[in-house]
Design a protein that fits this description.
By secondary structure, this protein is of the alpha/beta class. The chain has 21 helices and 14 strands. Helices cover 50% and strands 13% of the residues. The longest helix is centred in the first third of the chain and has 27 residues.
Length: 580
């Protein structure tokens, strides 16, 4: 029995106990059962206050309910007798007792007869429902030979090359069998969200002209033990009837997590069913299981061994060339102004954005141009859409108090001034005091090339820039605000990784809960804070000048900032930053 089921039963029993106790405490006193002699004596002594004569389910048997005076207090009573109702009513009338003879309570009679039948039927129905719940709803979708091909999947050329041989095997099995080659039973697509894993799985089926069965890992998780395993068996059964077939399970980490001795019974049974089904067909059967995850470290080791998921394909964020190819696919068929220039600019300035993000950029730009009644999608709208996807939508309607607006301006000016002093970091793109997303202001840096390795110096410079807003608040206002909390949190995360994961502390390795590690992290944070304060104090005049310009213009590009600070040129119109 699983822990969740035990908790449910315990809570259910506790609720029943509390309910019964409350009922026993609050229920009124039970009526006193009188004999016929006591009833007649009470009538004669005028102790009966009121009475009600009710027929029962038995012939010539009546129940009298009412109130009587007993020991100087009013208490309920009841009597069941074979006396005819006319005799009882005459007896009561003779002694001036108020009484009533209601008609037969048909509703109560029906309820008393049919309630046990209904309750039994409900219990039987629940049992039948539990036995059929595994097949009551189709949790997988069958798409016969998707129209998606490798031509529709761009930016992941290495991943396409790895799965291409699988497609070729499905098309020409004899070519490989004569040399003893076997088709991989499973392909595991690993990569961050939005990088095109699902699209790649559909393209495999489309290229191989195979039926495509898709399901989500959470579709197989249920409260009742055995339901998920039943759905797994049903999915593979359907695939065997529709060969050649691709079975795609998205977010397989929901289904195939590492098993533990005290793990959830349903999850373990479902995992075992998947392993058994993958062992139950041969590679020559024309069935391939494709799964996707962004958390491969959570998967059970039994799933990862050869014979299950033989092929592991990494689907990373696209590089500059890949981003350009993805943008070209999504721009196809759309009127783009100066298309080649737009492709180069957006591909260059969308570092670490996924294929899904790039698709959103084109869609958002198309919506903006349609709202503005343009006939083509232009570069300014593409840049605006990119900024919206990356950093969130500008909240121009949000009104800040004068003091808050000034503090935000100095905060963002602090970030900007320190970035201009650091050579290793990505260049400034724009700085704005217009609230965007969850921030009151943003200083945005724009990486122009993919960088996979970061030095300790680079990371320290990044921390100093993050501390810049806080340093400007200290220099110009003498105190900091909660507006710097996000910057401080980001700096701490960098410092923690430097110490715990990347071995950049005074010692090579620290235990996560070691006090020395916390001291080292605080030392890095304090060093970055001191350096940020030194730079802002040295550049105080420039920081003030930039903050005043932000209060006037709200948004400044890199070119406008450089012209303002070093050429003494006041911004006259918006100048977009073109990066090389």
């Amino acid at each position: 029995m699983s822990k969740r089921t035990r908790h449910f039963i315990a809570l259910f029993l506790l609720a029943i106990t509390v309910g019964l106790g409350t009922y026993n405490f609050l229920r009124p006193d039970a009526p006193e059962e009188l004999s016929l002699a006591e009833f007649e004596r009470s009538i004669a002594q005028n102790n009966i206050i009121e009475a009600r004569i009710n027929p029962t389910a038995y012939r010539d048997v009546y129940m009298v309910e009412g109130k009587r005076l007993s020991e100087r207090k009013v208490s309920p009573f009841t009597i069941t007798t074979h006396l005819e109702s006319q005799r009882i009513s005459a007896l009561l009338k003779k002694n001036d007792v108020a009484f009533a003879i209601p008609g037969k309570n048909m509703e109560a009679w029906i309820l008393s007869v049919f309630a046990p039948v209904l309750m039994g039927g409900l219990i039987i129905g629940l049992i039948l429902h539990q036995t059929r719940i595994g097949r009551s709803k189709k949790h997988h979708k069958l798409r016969q030979r998707p129209d998606v091909t490798f031509a529709n999947v761009a930016g992941v050329e290495e991943a396409k090359a790895e799965v291409q041989e699988t497609v070729d095997f499905l098309r020409n099995p004899a070519k490989y069998k004569r040399l003893g080659g076997k088709l991989p039973k499973g392909i595991l697509l690993v990569g961050p969200p939005g990088t095109g894993k699902t699209m790649l799985a559909k393209a495999i089926a489309g290229e191989a002209e195979a039926n495509f069965f898709s399901a989500h890992g959470s579709d197989f998780n249920e409260v009742f033990v055995g339901v998920g395993a039943k759905r797994i068996r049903e999915l593979f059964s359907q695939a065997k009837k529709n060969r050649p077939a691709i079975i795609f399970i998205d977010e397989i980490d929901c289904l195939g997590k590492k098993r533990k001795q005290d793990g959830h019974g349903e999850l373990q049974q479902t995992n075992n069913a998947l392993l058994a089904e993958m062992d139950g067909f041969e590679s020559s059967d024309g069935i391939i299981v494709v799964a996707a995850t962004n958390r491969p470290e959570d998967l059970d080791d039994a799933l990862m061994r050869p014979g299950r998921f033989d092929r592991k394909v990494f689907v990373p964020y696209p590089d500059r060339t890949g981003r350009r190819a993805i943008l070209a696919v999504h721009m196809e068929g759309k009127p783009i102004q100066d298309k080649e220039k737009a492709l180069d600019l957006i591909a260059q300035t969308s570092v670490e954005m996924s294929g899904a993000d790039l698709a959103s950029i084109i869609n958002e730009a198309a919506i903006l141009c349609a709202q503005r009644c343009y006939s083509e999608i232009s570069i300014p709208e593409l840049e605006e859409a990119r900024d919206k996807v990356r950093w969130g939508k500008e909240r121009k309607s949000m009104v800040l108090k004068k003091e808050e607006r000034e503090m935000v301006a100095y905060h963002e000016a602090g970030h900007t001034m320190i970035n201009l002093q650091k050579s290793l970091l990505p260049p400034l793109y724009k700085v704005s005091i217009i609230p965007r997303g969850g921030a009151l202001g943003v200083t945005t840096l724009m990486p122009t090339e993919d960088q996979n390795i970061h030095s300790k110096t680079f990371l320290l410079e990044q921390m100093v820039v993050l501390m810049g807003g806080r340093a400007a608040e200290k220099v110009f206002y003498g105190a900091t605000t909660n507006g710097a909390s996000g910057d401080l949190d980001s700096s701490r995360k960098i410092a923690q990784k430097m110490i715990h994961e990347w071995g950049m502390g005074e010692r090579l390795y620290y235990q996560p809960d070691q006090r020395d590690a916390e001291l080292e992290i605080n030392k890095l944070l304090e060093t970055a804070d001191r350096e940020a304060l030194d730079i802002i104090r040295a550049q105080k005049e420039h920081t003030h000048k930039l903050a005043q310009a932000l209060l006037k213009y709200e948004t400044l590009t890199r070119e406008q900032v450089l012209n303002l600070l070093y050429e003494d040129q006041e911004p006259t119109s918006e100048t977009r930053c073109v990066l090389n």
